[in-house]
Amino acid sequence: MIYTDMTKKALKLCFEAHKDQTDQTGMPYVFHPFYLAEQMEGEVTVAVALLHDVVEDSGYTLEDLKDMGFSDQVLEAVGLLTHEKGVPYMDYVAEIKKNPAARAVKLADLAHNSDVTRFSKDDGIPQEKKDWWAEKYSRARALLEDM
């Protein structure tokens, strides 16, 4: 991860937005965007990785991010990564494919979400649900990797 004024601002906002959330395995949610950001190389993709779920999973809006001074590149990618209710999942993924920053972050997101080592035997998540996620994420990765 690189540290610039923009990425540090995204890091702080990411923490603020997710600090009280946990993922489905019970881990602090904020570890997920931090993990993705560590894999990114450029300022825009680091910021997008940190912010990729802020609009979808907190009270912040794209307008809030704009008012905070995030670039149009970051706003566009975060907007694409925000899955709107009612939009079929694969249609949402197809739109992400058009934006290099959103695509890079979504591929890392899918890889992390598919990592079965994150789950434990006693996490309470039925195996059928895990299998469904694996299939869904596999199809999404295939679409994004098809260039």
Automatic annotation (TrEMBL):
UniProt superkingdom: Bacteria
PANTHER family the UniProt entry points to: GUANOSINE-3',5'-BIS(DIPHOSPHATE) 3'-PYROPHOSPHOHYDROLASE MESH1 (PTHR46246)
Name of the protein described by the UniProt record: Bifunctional (P)ppGpp synthetase/guanosine-3',5'-bis(Diphosphate) 3'-pyrophosphohydrolase
Protein species of origin: Brotonthovivens ammoniilytica
